[in-house]
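Thread: quick sanity check before group meeting

JM: Hey all, I'm pulling together slides for Thursday and realized we never actually wrote out the predicted structure for the chain we discussed last week. Dropping the sequence here so it's in one place. If anyone has concerns about the input, flag it before I start.
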Amino acid sequence: MSVDVKIGIENSPRELAFTSADKADDVYAAAQRALDGTDSVLALTDDKGARVLVPAAKIAYIEVGSAESRRVGFGAA
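JM (edit): ok, ran it. Output follows.
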């Protein structure tokens, strides 16, 4: 199951937003390691296979959400 990830970067007006093919728990664990100083770089992979690397010292916030399947049509609820 893929998850939506948003990363706020210090001194940057825009956030980095992408969908990761990893599990939410794996993304959360990588974020924890980066924020507590275990890892100096947060390394994630998006759903298309591109690597996303963010220096841990520049991370303002990280939001890990769940991705929903898109609903199409008038009867979608």
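AS: nice. The first helix runs from residue 24 to 35. The beta strands are 3-9, 15-20, 41-45, 51-55, 59-66.
JM: adding both to the slides.
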